[in-house]
Amino acid sequence: MSGKFTPKVPVKLEKPKDDPFTSKDLLKFDGIQSDKIYVAIKRVVFDVSKNPKAYGSGKGYHCFVGKDASRGLGKSSLSAEDNDPKISYKFDDLNEKETKVLNDWYTYFEKRYNIVGKVIDLD
C-alpha cells in the first residue's frame, strides 16, 4: 500500500475494538450529546474526537458524525441527501471511482483514528 495516507506526524493508535453499535446508539456520539465524536465507514466506527476542528458541531465535516458516512465520503458529498442516516451507510451502488474514494477515506481514517467498534444493524 502506498504511503500517501501515512500521517506526517506518527499517530499512536490503540488496539482496534469490536464493540457493537446500533445506528441509534451511534447518533449520540455527535460531539453535542456526548463529548465523543464518532464516524463510521463501511460499518467500522472511528473515534474522531481528537479532531473537533474538522468534525465538531458547525464544522465542515460534522455532517459525517454520528452515523455510517460511507455514501457521503465515497461521493465526496457534504449534501444532506447523501448524508441522511437512512441511506448514508449504503455504498454498494457507488461506481468504481466512488468506491476507490471511499476505500481511500477508510485507509486515511484507519491510520489516524482509533477503531472503537462496528455498526451491527445496517442492511
UniProtKB/TrEMBL annotation:
Family: Belongs to the cytochrome b5 family. MAPR subfamily.
A cellular-component GO term for this protein: membrane
Domain Cytochrome b5 heme-binding stretches: 21-120
GO molecular function, one term: heme binding
Descriptive protein name: Putative progesterone binding protein
Region named Disordered: 1-21
Chain intervals with Basic and acidic residues compositional bias: 11-21
Gene3D superfamilies: Cytochrome b5-like heme/steroid binding domain
Originating organism: Ascoidea rubescens DSM 1968
Lineage start: Eukaryota, Fungi, Dikarya, Ascomycota, Saccharomycotina
Annotated Pfam families: Cyt-b5
InterPro entries found in the cross-reference section: Cyt_B5-like_heme/steroid-bd, Cyt_B5-like_heme/steroid_sf, MAPR/NEUFC/NENF-like
SUPFAM superfamilies: Cytochrome b5-like heme/steroid binding domain
